[in-house]
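Standup notes
- DV: blocked on the single-chain target, sequence here:
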Amino acid sequence: MDEEPLALLRLLLARLERISADSYWAHRASGIRGSLLKALEKLESGAPVSKSDLMRLIDGGFWILEKAAEEKVK
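- DV (later): unblocked, structure below
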């Protein structure tokens, strides 16, 4: 796999990790982080990962980041 998607995954993981533990979204973020970490490990080891599953996880991660940011602004 290209390095660009791997870099995006790493960035997303880092951002999800920074959601405050006080946030409503922290628990959901930890769940999706676990799934993203498993996918990243598979990709780095050369194991196949379904592109649709990976995109669903990435979309979910960005959605949680968006919701956590909205919560912080309120």
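- Follow-up: Residues 3-73 form one domain.
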